[in-house]
Amino acid sequence: MTRKLIIIASATVTSLVAIAALAQQQDHDASAEGLTVLGEPVTMEEIAVGRQLYAESCASCHGANLEGQADWKRRLDNGRMPAPPHDETGHTWHHSDQDLFTITKNGVEAVVPGYESDMPAFEGTLDDAEIRAVLAYIKSTWPERQRTFQAKVTANDEDRS
Amino acid sequence: MSRHSYPALTRRMFILGSGAALGTSALPMALRAAVPADSAMAVVAFDGDALLAAGSNLIRSEDNGKSWTALPVPAAILGLATHPAQPGHLFAGLASGGVVLSQDGGRSWETRSRGLAEGEVDAVAVAAGQPDMFYAAVRGDGLWKSEDAGGNWSLAIDRPWLEDAERDPLALASVDLATGMGGIWIYAGTPAGLTRVPDCFCRWQDVQPGDAMDALVAGDTPPSEAPLPRSEPVRALASALSAPETLYAALPSGVWTSRDGGVVWSHVAQGSASAVAVHPADEKRLIAALDGVLKLSRDGGANWTTLAVA
Q1: What pLDDT, on the 0 to 100 scale, is given for residue B172?
Q2: In this complex, do A113 and B213 lie within 8 Å of one another by their Cβ atoms?
């Protein structure tokens, strides 16, 4: 009796693990509903990768919870502005996907000539797919209003291009 | 960054030097004697077709400057803004600190400074497309915004950084040109020249031709530019709602205009200009204070008529 119970229990556990793994795989493959970066749908796996990359490469300045540096609207003593939040309280969602990608890859000066910023260019540190994943993660945290606004900004930017 | 002081500018000297010339105790009244020219010219504005000039007092003309009425002000006015969607609403920044709003053309005022930093308010603006969105530049502090016509204020962004120092905006103008970030621009005149910030307040930046980056990337010849004289303060700025690419600026060298959003400027009036404003529906109709005298132009600054403030 006991042996049978053990077999049944083991089978049940194995099945549950398999189902969970399958669900997780499907979850990772699944696109985040309505979310795109540079015109391509975002997957849940990209968001997970982006979350990890953000923690490693961005959070030290922009905050573990995307909250930005303290008092970020006030200039630093070196004349530069602190790292802004990337959540809905900041202005990141006012910028198009292409601008966000360019700023991350090549620095702020790539979109505002002559502008001095403490943010480095991440080219050589993150590849294009990784930058895209970071942006996917950041965008996934925005409320609907900010997502919709930023989607329009991105669409207008694409139209101009 | 911390507050700092700097030499008083001509516009403030107008006020401080002549603040008591008229006084406001007997106001309002129709002005019959000539008003000392520099007592009311810190700022000028249009309220619809009415002309306004303000400093230590406020004067208003309903007949293109033929006659003027003096109106009371709670303190000397450093900045003044109106919006055609709200006729009779005057939004003013005060030398004593804080901002006030009049909803009856300047006859009475109420304080609208909740949450605003203390300090002289050198410049104010109303957003071109949002008449309840107010901006105020607090000296030594930064640019503040109110989304409810001054009911509540929050810091928008620190002061601009130009020539290795923070600079106080002396003038603000909401310019209805797209930033590419879902909004429009706020231009600022400073002691060190012109700058601008998108209304998402991401960063102050130089005025650049819209296709400057495209040319840079393509290796093409950069678009032509003719900036304002770099050695002069920009004391006043005006953007034409009827033609947002058209800007006017008041500098010690005179009145300047741009037809392309501030990339290429030309000199349209000689003399020390302390104030300029443009009619909300006619980008060629201007009022300016030049060499301490109020002047009107109906052709974008090519010709000027001196207004007798009497």
Answers
A1: 98
A2: yes
- Residue B8 within any structural domain of the chain: no
**Short-list B139, B223, B237, B114, CA closest to B185:** B237
Chain A residues within 8 Å of chain B (Cβ atoms): 73-77, 79-81, 84, 91, 94-96, 99, 108, 111-115, 149-150, 152-153, 156-157, 160
CATH code of B246's domain: 2.130.10.10
Question: Is residue B21 a part of any domain in this protein?
Answer: no
CATH class given for the domain over A33-160: mainly alpha
H/E stretch holding B45 reads strand B43-47
Confidence at A2, pLDDT banded by 50, 70, 90: low
- Please state the rounded mean pLDDT for residues B58-79: 96
Domain assignment present for B91: yes
In B, residues 176-195, which contact A (CB 8 Å cutoff)? 180-183
- Break chain A into its structural domains and give their ranges: 33-160
Residue B12 has pLDDT above 80, yes or no: no
Amino acid at B167: R
Closest Cβ–Cβ partner in A73, A77, A113 for B212: A113
Is there a domain that residue B124 lies in?
A: yes
Does the ipTM exceed 0.90?
no
**Segments forming the whole domain that contains residue B105:** 28-306
pLDDT at B89: 98
Domains in chain B, number = 1
pLDDT in tens, B245-303: 999 999 999 999 999 999 999 999 999 999 999 999 999 999 999 999 999 999 999 99
B213–chain A Cβ distance below 8 A for any pair: yes
pTM score of the predicted model: 0.85
